[in-house]
Amino acid sequence: MIKLDRIGFVIYEFPPIPYELYIKCYGRSNTQQVLVQTNDDALEGETQTEPLVSKTKWTQCPISFNLSATDNLEKLKNECSGVGCEELVDGISADYRRGGTDTNASLYQFVEKYGQIILSLLEEEDQYGGSQSSDQNLNSDIFENNTRDLKFSDQFINMKVDDVTFLKGRHVSHTLFCRESDVKLITVHQKPSTKDSSTTELVNRCMLCQWDITQPSTPLHILVSNSDVTSIVCNDPSLVVAGMRDGSISVWDVRDRTLGVRVGDTSLRPASYNTGEW
After folding, report:
1. Which residue, 185, 180, 179, 139, is CA-closest to 161?
2. Of 118, 218, 242, 257, whose CB neighbour count within 10 A is largest?
3. Which stretches of the chain drop beneath a pLDDT of 70?
């Protein structure tokens, strides 16, 4: 048996060339020596990541403004409110633009809130004939003396049901005051005994009327139901809920102006929602 020995040796060994020798021999061949120095000649500066924003506000008391100066709406708005800012953007600020989008909604809320008050005052003026010399004269025009032997009251307010064309000859089956408004009264008028074929089908249905007892001459809203009403609930004057004989429930939102159906000079309101239609 032959056993070979292992022998290792270096065929070529070349130590690294010192950097100085390499530069001396090859440093100037196809190369360019550049000397740089950092941070010694750098310019120093300070920065603020969150810029400081300042605005100048002014206020004026008492308020003074000129209605003829309408060339700058923002300036007129500030003068009317008695407070403003010196910096203006294109004459109309972003706040004014945002406020403009709510103009229609604000106007509707204003008319809805104070319109009934104005109508009530006008009706009182018409009933009282402009004479408000005493409380006795004031009450005698809206209250009627008790000639019907009502044991619980000396006087009463007569809702002018017969003056409304669609309510003549209808039996009143339910009456209810709104829980949140003691001047809002709901009355339910059942279907007429004889149907009028010459009018729209809505007129021959059961109707609900919302009254303001300070304006007894005409109802505020006339609501039309799909069936005979058996019960009513009215906590919020703007919402009327009624149970029907067929088992369905109807809801009227008197604030919704889009559902009114004009019949002559009167606006009839179908239900905003009915469980029997779904």
Report:
1. 185
2. 242
3. 27-48, 67-72, 86-103, 124, 126-150, 196-200, 278
Evaluate whether 225 touches 240 at the Cβ level (below 8 Å): no
CA 176 to chain centre: 29
> Could you tell me the two tokens for 123?
């009706």
3-state SS, one letter per residue, for the chain: CCCCCCCCCCCCCCCCCCHHHHHHHHCCCCCCCCCCCCCCCCCCCCCCCCCCCCCCEEECCCCCCCCCCCCCHHHHHHHHHCEEECCCCCCCCHHHHHHHCCHHHHHHHHHHHHHHHHHHHHHHHHHHCCCCCCHHHHHHHHCEECCCCCCCCCEECCCCHHHCHHHCCCCEEEEEEECCEEEEEEEEECCCCCCCCCCCHHHHCCEEEEEECCCCCCCCEEEECCCCEEEEECCCCCEEEEEECCCCEEEEECCCCCCCEEECCEEEECCCEEHHHC
**What does the alpha-carbon distance between residue 173 and residue 206 come to, in Å, rounded to a whole number?**
10
